[in-house]
């Protein structure tokens, strides 16, 4: 006579096994730390260090300048994510890259979202309404600085071109 | 916004329609995600730095007290420049929006460039080059937060003219470099490619000149100036090819590989 015990034991074993695996798997996934997509945000570190400086405190002009530099790095990162994400998505679909890289992109995107809000809030704390403009300012500054660097490189380019020409 | 009413048209409503409630304050900014904020906070690494002149208004590296330090791998030049600008303009509380333009500076650039053009037309190429260089330097003093288009166009125009002047005095390398910079500044402007091709032709590098023209034509296929010079280069190359085949190396005019033009 078959006991009811055998099917019950079977069900407990199967579902218990499934449950154990799923909980272990989820715990492992949650604990996994993805390699950050961007290197250390040094402009942000400097800005916060400047804020924390007390004797003597950093003057406001310096803090504002540091905040603009922070925003400039943010702008580069945002542009970089916007550029990389579609390409990475295609690579992910093809299986050319792993989930790790994709997860780190998503994490970076989320972090940047928060970062932008923080910078805008900081800017508004200095001057009301600056938060709406600071990223625009930052992106113009990036472009202008690049052009200025190009202009400064002209003498070096000349001697380089001259050397190529002589050889 | 349509309002749903439960009371019929004839019956007395149990409530009054006051003025609409004031709209909720504009949600200009969502509060940042606290979880991500914690992540950001956790990633913070304090920076070792020192404050420098004027009035602690600049940042130097902590170990060597340098603005730009290779040992500490830091470069605070840009930061300190902006800090000084903000410090010296005390009525400037923050960088203004990009559309606030320094008109005086634009005028100075235009004037200097015009002086250069006049000297160029008069055949005083050396003086013209000096003027153009000065105009480029004035343009680069524009506040960094202004629209990039302004600096881009000013620099491109001035350097394109300077390339032409360098070409006239026979400094082909400087001309080539200026043309290259013009192309990097305004990639879709035909003038840069034109100047580059001219300089390369003078240096007897017609193949490279042809490539430059073709890149320029890819941006602006209908450009007459570029089409013309391309035809001349092709003609010249074909002739040289023929010369190589029929004649020996005795080329008729070794000193001038340039097609006759402007």
Key terms:
heterodimer; A: 167 residues; mainly alpha; 6 helices; elongated; B: 262 residues; Serine Threonine Protein Phosphatase 5, Tetratricopeptide repeat; 3 domains; two-stranded antiparallel sheet; two-stranded antiparallel ribbon; 54% helix; 5% strand; disordered N terminus; disordered C terminus
Short description:
Chain A has 167 residues and is mainly α. Chain A has one domain. Chain A is built from 6 helices and no strands.
What does this structure look like?
The complex is a heterodimer of chains A (167) and B (262). Chain A is an all-alpha fold and 167 residues long. Chain A has one domain. Helix content of chain A is 80%, strand content 0%. Chain A is elongated. Chain B is mostly helical. In chain B, the strands form two sheets. Chain B has a two-stranded antiparallel ribbon. In chain B, strands 3-4 form a two-stranded antiparallel sheet. In chain B, helix 6 (172-185) packs antiparallel against helix 7 (190-202). The radius of gyration of chain B is 31 Å and the shape is elongated. The termini of chain B are far apart. Mean pLDDT of chain B is 82; it is low at 1-27 and 248-262. Classes of the chains: A mainly alpha (167), B mainly alpha (262). At the A-B interface, helix 2, helix 3, helix 4, helix 5 and helix 6 of A face helix 1, helix 2, helix 5 and helix 6 of B.
């Amino acid at each position: 006579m078959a006991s009811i015990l055998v099917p019950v034991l079977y069900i407990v074993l199967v579902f218990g096994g499934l449950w154990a695996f799923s909980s272990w798997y989820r715990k492992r996934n949650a604990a996994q730390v993805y390699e950050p997509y961007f290197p250390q945000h040094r402009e942000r570190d400097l800005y916060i260090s400047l804020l924390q400086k007390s004797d003597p405190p950093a003057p406001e002009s310096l803090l504002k300048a540091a905040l603009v530099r922070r925003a400039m790095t943010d702008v580069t990162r945002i542009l970089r994510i916007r550029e990389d994400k579609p390409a990475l998505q295609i690579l992910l679909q093809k299986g050319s890259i792993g989930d790790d890289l994709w997860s780190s992109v998503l994490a970076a995107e989320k972090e940047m979202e928060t970062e932008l809000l923080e910078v805008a809030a900081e800017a508004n704390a200095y001057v009301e309404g600056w938060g709406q403009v600071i990223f625009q300012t930052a992106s113009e500054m990036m472009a202008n600085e690049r052009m200025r660097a190009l202009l400064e490189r002209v003498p070096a380019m000349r001697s380089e071109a001259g050397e190529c020409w002589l050889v | 916004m349509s309002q749903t009413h439960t009371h019929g048209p004839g019956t007395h409503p149990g409530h009054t329609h006051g003025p609409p409630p004031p709209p909720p304050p504009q949600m200009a900014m969502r509060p940042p995600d606290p979880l991500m904020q914690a992540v950001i906070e956790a990633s913070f690494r304090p920076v070792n730095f020192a404050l420098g002149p004027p009035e602690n208004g600049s940042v130097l590296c902590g170990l060597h007290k340098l603005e730009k330090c290779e040992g500490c791998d830091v470069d605070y030049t840009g930061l300190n420049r902006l800090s000084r600008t903000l410090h010296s303009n005390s009525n400037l509380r923050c960088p203004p929006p990009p559309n606030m333009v320094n008109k005086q500076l634009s005028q100075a650039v235009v004037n200097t460039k015009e002086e250069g053009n006049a000297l160029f037309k008069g055949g005083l190429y050396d003086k013209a080059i000096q003027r153009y260089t000065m105009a480029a330097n004035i343009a680069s003093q524009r506040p960094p937060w202004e629209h990039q288009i302004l600096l881009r166009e000013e620099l491109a125009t001035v350097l394109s003219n300077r390339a032409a002047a360098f070409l006239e005095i026979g400094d082909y390398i400087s001309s080539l470099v200026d043309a290259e910079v013009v192309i990097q500044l305004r990639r879709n402007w035909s003038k840069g490619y034109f100047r580059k091709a001219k300089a390369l032709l003078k240096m007897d590098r017609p193949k490279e000149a042809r490539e430059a023209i073709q890149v320029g034509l890819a941006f602006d296929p209908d450009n007459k100036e570029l089409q013309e010079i391309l035809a001349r280069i092709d003609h010249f190359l074909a002739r040289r090819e023929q010369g190589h085949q029929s004649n020996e190396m005795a080329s008729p005019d070794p000193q001038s590989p340039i097609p006759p033009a402007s």
